[in-house]
Amino acid sequence: MKKRLPLLILLFCSFFSFAYAGGIVKGTVTDKKSGDPMIGSTITLTNESTGSKIVISAGLDGSFIFKNVESGKYLIEAKYVSYNNAQKHITVDDNATVTVNLTLEGKNTSLNEVNVSARAGRETDQSALNAEKRSDQVLNSVSARTIEVSPDITVANVTQRVSGISIERSNNGEGQYAIIRGMEKRYTYTLINGFKIPSPDNKNRYVPLDIFPADIIERLDVYKSLTPSMEGDAIAGGINLLLKDAPDDFTLKLNLGTGFSQSVADNGFTKFGNNNTSLRSPRIMHGDNYIANREDFSNNGQHFTNSKLPLGTIAGLSIGGRAADKKFGALVSLSYQNIFKDTKGTFFSTDVDAVSNLPKPTNIQSRVYNTQQERTSAIGRFDYKFDGRNKLTLDAAYIDLAQNQYRYVSDTSLTLARTGVGQGRITESPRSIRNVQKIVNFSLRGDHRLSDDFSFNWTGIYSKATANENRYELNLITSRTLQTDGSVLQAPLTVDASNGFAQTFAYNSDQDKSGYLNFIYSPKLFGTKVEFSAGGMYRNKTRSSTFDEYTLTLPITNSTQVYDGNIDNNQFELASNRQGTPGDALNYDFTENVGAAYGQFKFTIGNLQTLGGLRYEHTAQSWLDAEPVTKDGKTGSIKYYDLLPSLSFKYMLSDKENLRASYYSAISRPNFYEIVPHTSGDPDADYQEVGNTNLKHATADNFDLRYELFPKPLDQFLVGVFYKSIANPIEYALVSSSSNKDLVLEAGNFGTAHNYGLEVDITKYISHFGFRANYSFTQSEITTTKEEAYKDAGGNNTIRTVNQTRPLQGQSKHLGNLSLLYKDTKSGLDAQVSAVYTGERINSVSQFLNNDVWQKSFVSLDVSAEKKIFKQLFIYAKVTNLLNTPYQLFIKLPYPPLAAPGAAGQAIEFQQAGQNTFVRKDNYQQYYILGLHFKL
Amino acid sequence: MKTRAILNQLIAVLGLGIVLSACHQKEIVEVSAALVQTANPITTDTLAGTVKGTLLSGKTYYFKTDITVNDGDTLLMQNGVHLIALGDGITAATSPEIFVHGTFISLGTQDKPNYITVKNADELHAQAAQQNYTNVFFGWWGGITCTPATPSDLKPNPAGGDAIIKWTHIEFGGGPAGALDNQDIYKSGTARFNMYFGNKTKNLIIEDSWFFGAKDDNIQVGGGHISIMRNTFELCGGVGGELFNMKTGTLGDIAYNVCIGSATNSFKISDSGTSGIQCTATVYNNTMIDGGYRQTKSGRGGSIDFEKGARGRAYNNLIVNCRFGLRVTPDADVPNVAYGNHAFYGYSQAITDQFYTSDSDPAVKNAKAPSDIISTTPKQNNPVFYGFDVDQYDFTANPGPISASLQPSKIVTIGISNFKLQASSPALNKGKTDFAPLASVTTTGTYGTTITPPGKDIGAYQNDGTGNQH
């Protein structure tokens, strides 16, 4: 695969055209009003004597060039949809160059220009860039057009192209969460059209970004600073998904594609029964006192079939337009994606040596994941402009991600029955999970202008996110033992009598009802127009979560059963937890009411724009959990308020340069699950999790300084520095449980963390070529307590507590992005190569000194191309993860010198004495997509 | 221009004011505290809720729901007391548990032992004798759980209390755990033990008592000073579980116990956990018969197991037809595990091959104690019990793992067997006596422990009549 890369670049470069002798006509086509380049406008050069015509289209910078033009008189004409044509008469001489600059003027649509923001054309790159340039705050933008021609099909993967952002992937290699400026996902919020949405995650507030297909959004904005009018719980920043708006002209877009993954082609794909049903637990169906029996549980989740090469589907339909009087506009987008992927991985679970504190692998696991992700979404936007002063907008969105995952883990113990290399106790677990996440969101917004200097808007939102998960796990045991003839035999494969067949049922819902009201008054004071805004919001959030686990075990009379691959041949009984797990911590109800008010001003004197103000947020939380009254914290409430000032300056050095300085104060509220005082939790977690009712919200002071240069309408150069001081940052730490039996994971506050860095962002277009690059350097520090195992003077193996300073979890010191683009509107070819570099970062924090698990730095490479094949019909191809970049984890401590099997330092593949300790390696392989776009 | 200067100043002042005005209110937190009910005096024969006081000699008491002994309180059973758990083992609520945050004392005597059992105990024993174990391993009640109370403002660091159990039968625990249990000890829905003790500064004394028919582990200790002397442990663990399982923070002696028919180990010593006190045990003069056959997972033991970080000493133990013998895994504190003077008997080659388990640390496997009575061929060194035929069951044909229902009663319960040694036994006078018990429990007297020092005969019964008195 690596060898194909130079070829690709060569291919890319071969699109260069070469100059000939003769007359040259060149110039640019720009928008008369905004000065933006009219990319893709057609330029026709007509010889006035012969009538012969040459047609080309403007490049990415709005430029065009006709070479080898015969001398004579010509009419040059530029055209663009919904713009009036522009033309000029010119004379061309041999060996001379004529420069013609044409400007196009938009056709007038009277209602379009009204003050209630007309947002036609938000999907373009110019629009994204203008958003960055004109924004009141520090912002990065990605346009729908950029997304469409990029290799990315989910919003999560789009975010990684933005400077200072890296992504956290799920176990199928799909990006899931954005890490802005090296800060944990808890410090970021996700907005749709500027409003918060609830999360389907049963433990967290943040929304997994892989639920959103990329083609529903018009623009993705990443806020890196906040204004008082924005909600204040985004210390790292906010991600705003602007959904598509009703266009002025009738628009129809159709997209149909198919895809497959290399690993599925190589290894096939395992499907399971019940992959289309979501079930609630018998306890939820029949009540807490219901005694379940064997018949309540089907074996379907453990019935597997192999599919050779299931093909993926990508389909999208977007249709919209505006009534003849332009008052009523509508846009409906439907999107469907169905993707099959395989992941293979090797994982070592580790402990530390009780004397040396060095990492000690305890188990080696081989893992196979087969993941199907089916995304379905329907989004509608309807607006009605009563007149130039009043407008109503109704948004409705339904977003659904159904995931079916089959996992097979084979886990060999490196201590139990480990009498030599390749021997030991093995547990095998075929597992299937059906997980369905849904978000429904309705919002109604009114914009009203009462007079030239006074307007107000209001929004009412109902939003609900749900998730339902069914998990079917079979636990099998076998061992590899040395036979008398010296061979190693792996047999028999039997069912684990006490852990047998486990079924879990998890359901979560998170519902928001919120209202927003904003007033904007813009009087002239001292000859300067000052915009005052004030407003408030109130949100009632109710979250409830239920969880049940049932384990089918083997009867005493038949406790040694061989597994032959068909679970129907095994006999199970429901012996111990016939009631489910009503006492589990994941059964809770949580209410959060947030009320906020703000005042904000904005004015420009000379070249300096000043925006500032103050926000007040009041938080009231309360819960009721499944704990009995004889334990602490069955009910509880937490209340606090914050005053969050913000001030930003934008100094316009010239009409192409800005210098920005901003300060804002922000908070981060703990997740509900972290507060509710439970003592058990996620069955999939490595450690039990406990709640912490004393958890404080994190607060931060954030400073940004940025220089922006926009030399040409599509080119930009941004360089900025930031500093954040976070008080009471929330991190997970392993602490001793009340019983000392195990370590438990608890969220806590850890002093003050400091985070600073530098970001550089460059975009440059030369005719048909584009170059986008960004780099960010981030440094963060946090000090937490760690444990160190050692032998004391009395010969007692014990543990002492030491402080260790480390970077924030998930923060890479270096992040880089590089995209090369080619665009030729005439031939209708778009191509892009994108590379992302993610420097090493802490993947998980260990409770032991120096034992943090790091993710190795990596480069991932994606390519995509689109070609016009017939008028409005385009064919496109995307290849992601071209280099088959693995996901690798390690501990920065040496694997100990060679020792006996079962002991620290035993010989085992992947580990080398003296080298960093290997923890995990997953391979996702390439994913290929081929499809058609139709645009009208 | 003047207005501009004014405005600029205004901006500067305003700006400074804004930056300084950030204010974050400290959380006002109200959390419901654990509800503690003052103990009820014992007035009827049915115990419920929070109790303290004395269960009177010779009387029978019942409990149908969980009972709790508060921090600082004591529940004392005089001799000859029957305490009957009325449970169906179906749900946590209907499998009552004894929560002890204070002190629990059961002072049975040789003539008048105490019983903490279920109503149909006789029926269950009869079924066990007929090789029908389904109800024996069913798990009818929730066992005795000794842990510190929930910390409160009044008592921020409760330490729990002692548990002193003498001449007492404790049987048939194992009902499913529920929300009332500490999920760190008992995850909802899992089987509870006959007894759990986790007070690392307190004492656990179990002397001359009988344990029978736990669904999973019989006794688990998550920290404490222990003295486990002269007990009988029979037929515990349906498909897995140890007779006595000790974790980090546990220090003490285990001696003169007779163990038969364990699912896995008789004694498992492991430093797993986070107390910072290394688990240390002296295991001596115990007799272990036919252990480890019901554990379906490989890589487990069948008699004495020193695992993860554990240290201690093992001497004078008699290990007969256990699926695995002495096991000191490579992750144990191997240099600090001392052993010797053991007598091993194996019916089959497979048993004989595992007298020192094959997955023990090479430093142990390659340094078998010369003081052991051991052979590499089966059926050597018969300990010559008074009333137990060591060759009555064909372990060659049934090497394990095996379903309980296939194990004859006579090899997993004591019944009429007698494990005293005849004069012809090779184990007589082979014991090591020149070492001292750990004596971690120092109190003596009625509420203290009586430590029997190491004996000259290997196993739990001494020819001079000392040792196990059952």
User: How many alpha or pi helices of chain B?
Assistant: 5
Name the chain pair whose interface involves the most residues.
A-B, 107 and 93 residues
Q: How many runs of DSSP E, i.e. beta strands of chain A?
A: 51
Helix/strand class of chain B: mainly beta
Measured between the Cα atoms of the first and last residue of chain B, the distance is: 107 Å
Helix content class of chain B:
under 10%
Shape of chain B: globular
Write a compact overview of the structure shown:
The complex is a heterodimer of chains A (936) and B (470). Chain A is mostly beta strands and 936 residues long.
Describe the structure.
The complex is a heterodimer of chains A (936) and B (470). Chain A is mainly beta and 936 residues long. Helix content of chain A is 5%, strand content 57%. Chain A is built from seven helices and 51 strands. In chain A, the strands form seven sheets. Chain A has a 22-stranded antiparallel β-barrel. In chain A, a hairpin with a 2-residue loop joins strand 33 (635-654) and strand 34. Mean pLDDT of chain A is 85; it is low at 1-20 and 108-121. Chain B is mainly beta and 470 residues long. Helices cover 9% and strands 28% of the residues of chain B. Chain B is built from five helices and 33 strands. Chain B has helices spanning 2-20, 121-129, 349-353, 362-365, 409-412; strands at 23-24, 28-31, 46-50, 53-55, 60-69, 74-77, 82-85, 98-100, 103-107, 114-118, 144-146, 163-166, 168-171, 195-197, 203-207, 210-212, 219-221, 224-229, 232-236, 244-246, 250-255, 258-262, 267-269, 280-284, 287-289, 304-306, 311-315, 318-320, 327-328, 337-340, 343-345, 385-387, 418-421. In chain B, the strands form three sheets. Chain B has a 19-stranded parallel sheet that branches. Chain B is globular, with a radius of gyration of 27 Å. The N and C termini of chain B lie far apart (107 Å). The chains are: A mainly beta (936), B mainly beta (470). The interface between A and B is large, with 107 and 93 residues. Strand 33 (635-654) of chain A pairs antiparallel with strand 1 of chain B.
